[in-house]
Amino acid sequence: MRKKILSVLSMLLFLSPQAMAAGQGAIELKSAAEVEVTIKNDKGEMEVKRVEAAKANVTPGDAVIFTTYYSNNGQEPASDIVINNPVPEHMFYIDGTAAGSGTKIEFSVDKGKSFDVPDKLKIKGVDGKEKSPGPAAYTNIRWTLSKPLPPEGKGSVSFRAKVK
Hints:
By secondary structure, this protein is mostly beta strands. It has one domain: Mu homology domain, subdomain B (Immunoglobulin-like, Sandwich). Helices cover 4% and strands 40% of the residues. A hairpin with a 5-residue loop joins strand 7 and strand 8. The chain is flat.
């Protein structure tokens, strides 16, 4: 099985067992954690550029962009691909930033034990009654690819989280 997993700021990536078996272990994952900084370019104009979060001075309130790049390096289409990214504990998810073309996006509020769309998520309040959580309560984000990934197929999923 050939799979590359990079851990960035406590971010873990998981593929479903079916995806690993279906793709003959040919799914490769790469992760990146970046921040946007404003710099002056060679023309003296201000522009926004992404830099590695590990090389930037990330402070509370800063947003970090987490991206998972995936590719099928095998000879067969890979199906049932699921990517699960925990939101780092020292951060909170920024509402509406999860993205992934051709994927179903779901969230967890129980560290990945269960997933659903935001409207169906529930947590118990201090009064013991169920209520809808806000995005800051999300502990994990899961993307399920809607179609098999062909040989040499690739894509990416991403989200933003703010440092507490």
